[in-house]
Description:
Shape: globular
Distance between the termini: 17 Å
Number of strands: 0
Number of helices: 8
Oligomer: single chain
Largest sheet: none
Amino acid sequence: MTNSWLILATKIALTLWLFALSVKDHLHRRIPNGLVLPVMFGALAWQVYIAITTKANALGFIALAWVAIFMLWRAHIFGGGDAKFLMALFALFPSVEFLCFFSLVVLLVSLPLLLAQAVKTRESPFRRLAEGLHGLPTADDLRRHGRPYCWTLALPGAIYLWWVL
């Protein structure tokens, strides 16, 4: 009985964390380290504990995910806050299943946003895509034109947390 209350409390706390990050990003276009790093390193410590005490070991997956996210940050695909947030998510849910689920949900949510933006600005989404293929954005491009869409990254985490776990 205590275990079920602990699981419920953890799910509620993580949901509130995801919501707080999304709101902070939307209002201030910034994801503060104080909200991300404790969860990121706490989840990593938990995965190390699991690896030590059981035969389950997700540390290799986490390392690969973090390297990929770091490379996306260096290419200015994500800002630093988004990258740290993604590192926290993949430390919390270190599995290929979550990666696939995450990718699908982000795609399903982001495509309508891209199309809505194109309609709003009367710009072809394919033109913007083609412009993006000519080179990676600079840090300044990301700072000036980046969108506060942390919620699109948080949504799959919240759904996975309540639906799958």
